[in-house]
Design goal:
2 copies of one chain form a homodimer. In chain A, 43% of the residues lie in helices and 16% in strands. By secondary structure, the first copy, chain A, is α/β, with parallel strands linked by helices.
Chain lengths: 476, 476
């Protein structure tokens, strides 16, 4: 596995000079990195690609090749694999499609390639995959992906396009990744192998996976039960309906299986199952930064009543409890809030926002509160227009708003210090001034992501609570 | 109602020169518009605000005042309302909070204000609200909102902060609004009144509403049943759980009622009920632009298999059917796609994207298909890196990618022409190159929003189908 994720030399069989071709994108990514690892393009029709000398075959390369990336047409793959064996290659990524997923003939070809690799001591990713990456090693074979920041989240994807989405969305959310692999048909290396590898990878703090079918459920269960005690595993499992399962079969020849059985299995081994693409990242970032909740009692703080109602609904529907606030907590909040505040949970700040940090600190400290949910609590709104046509006084006010926003960012450190001291999570949603406010940028950087909607924040909190309960139930 | 949404003159009672105060934001918004409507600040402590001369009281204003915006403290509101009557004001927006929502004393004060207004022939919004706007009249009293574009969607919100969110999110999605009102405690004008008004408003094509409680369910039902035949009504109703209902009561003194009863009522009068904040806009924009589906049979087109599986699951769970493709349709698709394509529905383009427009057209035309769902079908990915350190050939490739993206944008017109010709909706999700690609920008502008996730797109399609079925059931 180390040869695949951290090779000292790479060859691209089927490298191409034609933009738009996969063999171009992958080669361009590999040579675009900032390291000295040799990358050899194999192509018998042109002399050079992007200024790099090509080799007609793998065997013509003078130096050793640890990892082979195979992008050449399906009919060439068996002979390429034979070359890999002859060359002493250790690992391969077979991007090429047209194997088990296209029927019996493809299945037979796939079996042949597996046998050759086994005999030659080669382990491989794919076929029918979209590549992989390791940000720490500056290695990137996933053609479409650019500028993925280094970070603590790993992703195993049984779908290339879902994987691509995941990375795209991650980049949008400013999330960093450790490793990624598009597993394809899993002819040789399987979901379970990657899981085992990532469990021991120090760069990875949270493992996420998009799964269509689990080929070895027994092994998956045993592995996951061990891993989740120390490292959270977040899974999006599709093929939940019989129609979806059929689609999964034609996609990666994966048997989707009974959804209810998967649900029970994931629950029993502490795997966090999500229902939607975005939810996978919402919870993954929270698992990196947030303390583990000790119970289900939530204090809701909101800039306005509407989100208080929406969040209460969402909490109750997901099995969370609305915490009872003690008289002492109410009294402390009285000091921060105007007389019209709700005097209960949800704590409706009634349109004020300048005391939200004090309120958040009070609720984090409060007895009987296991977690805080804050909406419209960060990201001071600018209440003044800007632009060339506004009067001087308004422009001054805009400067003042900017000053207020900068001041707010200074409060973030104190808030996060409180989170640490009281060892309780705080999940935030909706910054009225948008995610460009300095405070929100700081919170996002520290892993306290400000979710766009209350519903997304509540889902995250519910996952945190359930995972905490699971860990307690297995004595961790 | 016209005096409220389209007044010829406005006074702000409680206007302030202090940035951060509501009386400042509202006044700044009102004078910031590009029209000649007189706006009078009423404040008895300073001489001028933002360079505009103040008046100690409403009665000191020389000209007529059609609309009064009241932001002064709650104890002053009765006497201000009395001044409004004396001045001959026609409508008012009472932003000030501290009435029915704070208990018996507030309730009595609210009743007194209503009686005075009734006797003086004044209708008013609020109290305890966040203002309103009318983009066509360049009128904006919702303090926090800036640069709201004009458009076909109106929003009635029983929560100021939910309303603020709605506008913020709309702006992020590039959605234009016609009118907005934060209804507050609804002491005088109620949800039902705004609904009736917007039904007749030519600027409004879709009415959205955030509702905590319906004060006159009979009238709401009768109105909605009529309106939805010609103009879609999208509702987010909170207070679904008993805890949420309790929170709603303390927020706007609204009785949330039984959730199942609301569900049944909305269904019977053709109201589209959404479960989350974002869903409200997702469906609102689609209702403006998309043709009405004639059935539930969906063709799924996807750049990769993973999204095909996820979308199939989502469709089946929401009661949509996966269309059976005819041999002729399969044959036409064979011309566009490589041999490895799925040869069925979902149509997995297997990593190709350059023929997606041809495929979308084919599926729109296909017999047995009522709607098309397309994922990774628009927004050509750039497969080449950019930046100062890339070799010349790579830079050329980047230029080529830009050229391809521009070419793609030209295909959008043909696609939308096909949508019109075949009179079937096409709902799109996930543009691999991001929403900045010229094609995606064009699609968004035309109201064919490219949703970030397959799940969001499927939810929209399910709403469109159900609304179409409702209309057919009532003979429209």
């Amino acid at each position: 596995m180390e040869s695949i994720f951290n090779p000292s030399s790479v060859a691209v069989i089927g490298a191409s000079g034609a933009p738009g071709k996969w063999g171009f994108g992958i080669f361009a990514r590999l040579i675009g990195g900032g390291n000295d690892r040799p990358v050899y393009p194999v192509n018998n029709r042109v002399d050079q690609i992007l200024g790099v000398r090509t080799y007609p075959s793998l065997l013509d390369i003078p130096g050793p090749v640890e990892l082979a990336i195979i992008v050449s047409p399906p009919e060439t793959v068996p002979s390429v694999m034979s070359d890999c064996v002859a060359k002493g290659v250790k690992g391969a990524v077979v991007v090429t499609a047209g194997f088990a997923e296209v029927g019996e003939k493809g299945k037979a070809a796939e079996r042949r390639v597996v046998e050759m690799a086994r005999e030659g001591g080669i382990r491989f990713v794919g076929p029918n995959c979209m590549g992989h990456f390791n940000t720490a090693a500056d290695l990137m074979t996933a053609g479409e992906m650019t500028g993925v920041p280094r970070g603590p989240i790993a992703c195993i994807s049984q779908s290339g396009n879902f994987g691509g989405y995941v990375i795209w969305r991650g980049a949008q959310m400013g999330i960093g990744f450790s490793k990624f692999v598009s597993t394809g048909n899993e002819a040789d290396l399987k979901l379970e192998d990657y899981l085992e590898y990532l469990a021991q990878d120090d760069e990875t703090k949270v493992i996420t996976a998009y799964i269509e079918g689990i080929r070895d459920p027994r092994r998956f269960f045993a592995l996951a039960r061990d891993i989740t005690k120390a490292k959270p595993v977040v899974v999006m499992k599709s093929g939940r309906t019989s129609e979806g399962a059929r689609a999964a079969w034609s996609h990666t020849a994966a048997l989707a299986g009974e959804d209810a059985i998967h649900d029970a299995m994931f629950r029993q081994c502490g795997v966090i199952r999500v229902g939607e693409a975005d939810e996978m990242f919402d919870i993954a970032v929270a698992l990196v930064a947030q303390p583990r909740p000790r119970g289900r009692r939530v204090a809701i703080l909101t800039g306005g009543g509407g989100f208080g109602v929406v969040a209460t609904d969402a909490c109750v529907r997901l099995g969370l409890e609305i915490a009872e606030l003690s008289p002492e907590t109410i009294e402390t909040l009285n000091k921060y809030l105007p007389p019209r505040w709700s005097h209960g949970n949800p704590v409706d700040m009634a349109g004020t926002s300048n005391t939200s940090y004090g309120c958040m600190g009070t609720l984090l400290k409060a007895e009987g509160v296991d977690a805080v949910l804050g909406m419209s609590c960060v990201g001071s709104p600018s209440t003044v227009p800007s632009g060339p046509d506004v009067p001087d006084a308004v422009r001054k006010a805009a400067e003042y708003a900017e000053y207020v926003a900068d001041e707010e960012a200074k409060l973030v450190d104190g808030l996060l210090e409180r989170v640490k001291r009281h060892d309780k999570p705080i999940v935030l949603a909706y910054a009225p001034a948008g995610n460009e406010s300095p405070a929100v940028r700081k919170l996002n950087q520290r892993g306290f992501f400000v979710y766009p909607t209350p519903e997304r924040a509540v889902r995250v909190l519910a996952h945190l609570v359930r995972y905490g309960e699971y860990l307690a139930s297995v004595g961790v």
